[in-house]
DNA sequence: ATGAGTCCTG
DNA sequence: CAGGACTCAT
């Protein structure tokens, strides 16, 4: 029977096994963005960043990545086509070539001067390597060096010049497909290169250089003219084929472009109404821009690509395809510019501001992310946590409704609710709500979960700390099934500072509430903010030195929630492997949460890391205690997991409360007990099942518990958090 | 190189 | 809790 010391051993074991959770956030964000396919988001983002992003990115955001993918493909294809035809025509290669030549000339030291007249040798040895970039490069590269000890340098010079000319011809031909400017410049460069050729002489070769050259010369063409002809003939065929393929690609791109265009306008139509009432979302703004310049956009988009006839296309060389793609990019940039312009005009009208845009964009993004996360959480919890015969958690809901003061008409609720961002068991207002002035759908629409902190009841009679109730000794009145009769929740001793995952869990997961937020029916109702604020006031009052920033105080009240979210959501990546909804995992960082909730706090590195530190520590403590008590229960001979009941009298609860809520400043939400119990059960079961042999066995538990997390109380998001608390 | 976040230790 | 090592990502 393992005692709880094992924990430390295991901790040590898992030392290097930890999963770094902050890894894929950005990916997640972007993938979610894509998955969401929300034009609201995309447009907003595009508008917000358009000026900073390059053309490709703008285009991607604006018309969707499909198009840009096509463009990229086209560009890529174009260049690969060129590569295939004549590598020398590749701008990259040319650039490289010219650069290296220049570098060579610029080298003062003779020792390091590239032995240009040494290059012809490869001509004699090579067998028409005409398609590999490497060979081309090698051949052209002034870096190529061979031992010339036995060679007639003059002859080689001659040959080399011949080869060089052929190559330049080759390049020029290849460049026919490129924009004139480039071709011309390259041509000139090449000519210059030829002219200055004979000035370079060979002085010496290092062995290393020789080796490098030897490697290369095997691939170099022996007969430049011959290989060139082969090149041309081969590439002519390739040209035809490539042209055909490019044509197909372009046609495909046209199709996609049209589709995107249609989609774009459809989206505008669908969101048009949402922008009514002076609430201009990014989407509507953008769409307005589109419609405002409808004819022009149509022209821009269709004229260059869609309207181009196939015949015309067929006559286009690969360079023209590239031009086509570039033209598309330009068009997109232009469109983007118009968007920005339109946006600017709106802004000048006072309808919106860039700041608002960014803010709203962020909010929208967060909502989308959380929605997706919530889905995953729901599904996972439903599948894993409640796969067993349902425990009486459902009864928590009515009981909580009884115990909490739901004041849906509380004006504070609405103002705060509009700012509400929830994590963990995410409850968000609908994405559009985040935009300025968009009213909440309904006063009764509960978009928030239970606050983490409940104000102490006015009747501050302390609950009897009955030491009798211990883990492994179920107490009827404390069992979840009898929570509705349990008055303990109202009882002031329920003051726990940290997040209470189950608040969201009970309602959302158990009741199967929509992941996008509590519906008005599923939600427990709005929490009376005054309760929590009053509760917090106590804390605040005792922490006047932190008056400017409430966050230093808050970690104690939000730490575990944040920690849970933070630590476990990272594991959603793992869960995504299990979940059929694997596309929609989410991960939040502490810092982003902190910054969102404590907007009045000027976060710097120090503050952020300190808070993170606190959260980590809080979280750690929670789980350490869980494991400890689970092992203790096992040691005590508890056989069935259901015999483990966490109540207000449980030692576990006391320990936690002592740690997080020493002064009992906070009323601990009922759901905390639920989550604590579930956590304990998880640990117990895992240990009993010997899953703890796995160094990372806790992670599975983290996953489960993470999903029970409830959101940070909305009050914390208020910029006037402190004032509000003190006013209570 | 730096930051975010976790894990371990004291 | 804090310090610091460590990992991972940018």
Features:
728 residues, mainly alpha, Arc Repressor Mutant, subunit A, 29 helices, 59% helix, elongated, DNA-binding
Main sheet, how many strands, which sense, barrel? none
Radius of gyration: 34 Å
Amount of beta strand:
under 5%
Q: Please state the second-level CATH architecture of the domain at 619-725.
A: Orthogonal Bundle
Taking the alpha carbons of the first and last residues, their distance comes to 52 Å
Overall form: elongated
**Count, helices:** 29
> What structural class do the secondary elements suggest?
mainly alpha
Per CATH, the superfamily of the domain at 619-725 is: Homeo-prospero domain
Low-confidence residue ranges: 1-153, 171-229, 268-329, 335-355, 376-587
Helix content: 55-70%
CATH level 3 topology of the domain at 619-725:
Arc Repressor Mutant, subunit A
Mean pLDDT: 45
- CATH top level of the domain at 619-725? Mainly Alpha
- DSSP, total strands: 0
Helix and strand run? HHHHHHHHHHHHHHHHHHHHHHHHHHHHH
């Amino acid at each position: 029977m393992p005692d709880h010391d094992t924990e430390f051993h295991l901790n040590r074991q898992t030392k290097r096994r930890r999963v770094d959770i902050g890894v894929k956030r950005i990916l997640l964000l972007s993938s979610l963005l894509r998955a969401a396919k929300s034009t609201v988001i995309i447009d907003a983002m595009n508008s917000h960043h358009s000026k900073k992003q390059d053309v490709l990115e703008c285009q991607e955001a604006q018309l969707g990545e499909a198009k840009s993918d096509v463009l990229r493909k086209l560009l890529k294809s174009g260049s690969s086509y060129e590569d295939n035809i004549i590598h020398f025509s590749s701008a990259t290669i040319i650039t490289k070539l010219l650069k290296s030549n220049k570098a060579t000339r610029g080298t003062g030291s003779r020792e390091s001067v590239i032995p240009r007249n040494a290059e012809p040798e490869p001509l004699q040895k090579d067998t028409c390597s005409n398609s590999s970039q490497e060979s081309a490069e090698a051949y052209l590269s002034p870096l190529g060096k061979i031992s010339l000890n036995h060679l007639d340098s003059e002859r080689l010079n001659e040959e080399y010049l011949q080869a060089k000319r052929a190559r330049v011809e080759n390049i020029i031909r290849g460049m026919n497909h490129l924009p004139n400017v480039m071709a011309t410049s390259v041509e000139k460069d090449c000519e210059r290169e030829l002219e200055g050729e004979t000035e370079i002489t060979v002085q010496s070769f290092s062995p290393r250089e020789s080796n490098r050259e030897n490697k290369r010369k095997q691939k170099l063409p022996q007969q430049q003219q011959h290989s060139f002809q082969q090149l041309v003939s081969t590439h002519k065929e390739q040209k035809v084929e490539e042209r055909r393929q490019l044509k197909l690609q372009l046609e495909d791109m046209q199709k996609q472009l049209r589709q995107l265009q249609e989609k774009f306008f459809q989206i505008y139509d669908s969101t048009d109404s949402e922008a009514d009432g002076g609430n201009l979302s990014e989407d509507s703004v953008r769409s307005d821009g589109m419609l405002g310049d409808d004819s022009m956009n149509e022209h821009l988009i269709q004229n260059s690509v869609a309207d181009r006839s196939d015949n015309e296309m067929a006559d286009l060389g690969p360079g023209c395809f590239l031009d086509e793609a570039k033209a598309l990019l330009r068009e997109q940039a232009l469109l983007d510019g118009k968007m920005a312009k339109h946006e600017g005009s709106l802004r000048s009208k006072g309808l919106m501001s860039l700041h608002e845009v960014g803010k709203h964009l962020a909010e929208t993004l967060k909502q989308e992310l959380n929605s997706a996360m919530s889905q995953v959480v729901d599904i996972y919890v439903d599948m894993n946590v409640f796969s067993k015969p349902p425990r009486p958690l459902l009864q928590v809901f009515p009981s909580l409704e009884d115990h909490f003061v739901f004041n849906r008409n509380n004006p504070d609720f609405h103002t705060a609710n509009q700012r509400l961002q929830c994590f963990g068991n995410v409850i968000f207002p609908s994405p559009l709500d985040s935009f300025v002035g968009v009213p909440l759908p309904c006063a009764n629409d509960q978009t928030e979960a239970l606050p983490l902190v409940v104000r102490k009841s006015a009747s501050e009679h302390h609950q009897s700390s009955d030491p009798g109730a211990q883990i492994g000794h179920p107490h009827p009145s404390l069992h979840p099934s009898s929570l509705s009769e349990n008055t303990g929740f109202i009882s002031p001793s329920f003051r726990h500072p940290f997040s209470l995952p189950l608040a969201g869990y009970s309602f959302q997961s158990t009741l199967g509430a929509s992941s996008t937020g509590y519906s008005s029916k599923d939600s427990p109702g709005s929490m009376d903010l005054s309760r929590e604020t009053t509760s917090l006031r106590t804390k605040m009052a005792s922490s006047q030195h932190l008056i400017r920033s409430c966050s230093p105080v808050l970690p104690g009240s939000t730490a575990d929630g944040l920690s849970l979210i933070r630590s476990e959501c990272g594991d959603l990546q793992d869960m995504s492997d299990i979940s059929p909804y694997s596309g929609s995992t989410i991960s939040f960082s502490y810092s982003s949460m902190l910054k969102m909730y404590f907007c009045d706090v000027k976060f710097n590195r120090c503050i952020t890391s300190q808070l993170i530190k606190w959260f980590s520590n809080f979280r750690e403590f929670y789980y350490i205690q869980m494991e400890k008590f689970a092992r203790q229960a096992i040691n005590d001979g508890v056989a069935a997991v259901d015999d483990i009941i966490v109540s207000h009298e449980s030692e576990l609860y006391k320990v936690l409360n002592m740690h997080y809520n020493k002064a009992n400043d906070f009323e601990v939400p009922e759901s905390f007990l639920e989550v604590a119990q579930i956590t304990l059960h998880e640990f117990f079961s895992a240990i009993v099942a010997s899953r703890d042999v796995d160094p990372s066995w806790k992670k599975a538990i983290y996953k489960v518990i993470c999903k029970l997390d409830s959101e940070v109380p909305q009050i914390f998001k208020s910029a006037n958090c402190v004032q509000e608390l003190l006013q209570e």
